[in-house]
Structures
1.
Amino acid sequence: MGKKRINQLLNQLKENQQAELRNAAAIYSVAQIAVDELEAIATADLPKPERAIPAGIASRIAPTTPAPALPAAVPTQLTQAELLQRYGSYNGCRSAAKKLGIHFPKNPSWPQLIAAFSYIAAFRQLIHDYAQQQEIRNLSGVRFTVTLE
């Protein structure tokens, strides 16, 4: 290609870049205006859902029994020393976690092990309470895996 054609292509490239920059700025400004409007709507005083839905419809869609209450207190946070005293070693903790149904995507750190052992009882109690409250039957011995992301 000749020098003239290369210069023409370079100029065209610069013009395209400038046009893309202007387009990006326009998109950003439109998006910012939309975000500002959504925030204004979200913070505005909206009617309560009970008043917004007619009583007849609300009674048909409302749950017949309330959801179980979350535990009032945060479970006692265990320590690494307590886990070592209970299970003897890191590998002992891993084995105990596996027996309890606690699985990790890779080798867990001590803070992950501590959190898992601290909350397993609260999670089980919550599920048990829900199953009793909803009168769920025929699940004795059934295991569920819940993945927290």
2.
Amino acid sequence: MVEDPLATADCLQITREMGFDRLLSADQPYTTSCPLPFQADSVKTARDVTRSTLLRWGLSELSDDAALVVSELVTNAVRYAVYAGARRDIQLLLMRITPHVLLAVADPSDDVPTPKEPDFVSENGRGLYIVETYSQCWGWDPLARGGKAVWALFRTES
């Protein structure tokens, strides 16, 4: 649920104007970027980077939800980007755009992320449902170099 649609629209407009390609390669204030290899332990690394970044920014109240969402996004990237030939690493990006935190995972796959109806018996297929449930909103943007950035937006209390 979007509590402040104008603030959310402003945040998303900033990311689209700059472009995820530029955000992923630039050293911006209140931005953390981390390359992740195509391996299962990248999920733990992404959670650790997310938690430590939010703690450093004084936003530890977002840590649990953001760590869960980043786990799902990186798991999807590792699982599906392998089919894209793994031309480059996965890239994690966290960006503070007050009053939001944007979390994005870029991967080399051009496949569009498609939510599935959650099957609570199956061991997979719930990832984007979890992302949608725990973030304010989510989406994806194609990258100029190929691939995509799947992002989730969180609203901060401060």
3.
Amino acid sequence: MSDAEIMAHFADPRQHLYYGHDETGAHIGMVEFFVADSNEIEITYFGLFPSLTGRGFGKRLMAGALDLAWRLNPSRIWLHTSSFDHHSVIGFYGACGFVPFATGFEIIDDPRIKGTLPRDAAPQIPLLDMERGAESENVARRRAGKP
């Protein structure tokens, strides 16, 4: 997004952006949410510095964000997430009081195969490289003199 697009995005009064800080004032993460016309709030972004996970900062950041969001009297607060975000995110959101209302299975192109991410990124997600497997099998057949 360009600077102008970012400015226009956050000029919308339905968009809310909050930064979390620790006791020293250091930035720990941020939360963005959107108030829909139906008076529902969607948390569109929740981010914590990776070095701070597992230390309680995420729960504090989410508690603060939910406190601010509930002050707007929405009919509900929801979010969309995936285990691709982080391997423990489903449990984290459950501990913050969210309950699943739908689950699904998505098939996407793996950025590790395309080279967008290193092959060892996201080790909690199995790497299914069908093309490489098929290619290796074909090379082996050719070496053995089979079609």
4.
Amino acid sequence: MSVVRRCSRTACRQPAVFTLTYVYADSTAVLGPLAAYVEPHCYDLCAMHADRLTAPRGWEVVRLPADTTGGPGSDDLEALANAVREAARPPQASEPVGQGIETHRRGHLRVVKSEPPAPGHPSGRPGRPDRPPQDA
């Protein structure tokens, strides 16, 4: 059973065909094809309200062409593939791993003993902040 999404404008009962979202950092309103899923902070608009859309002073409206194919485009599939690749990539450590206390050394080899976590310390390492200090 398919539920038709309606225009987000008050008292408008027309079916939605566009989705409006805002990029606040760029002062941009983006009006594109109807999103596949209802997203928070996005507004579904009918054709009439999409045509009449204006943005506040200093803002830009970007109107993306309507999707007439009815399926995902090559850009959508490429974006999905890139997201899967990114998720599969191992995280980069921002801090060296294996901090400990050197107990014995023979030539170029070292024996390192792990420090026990300090009780109540969020990072589990005594005397070390959660993040490395930032250069001023």
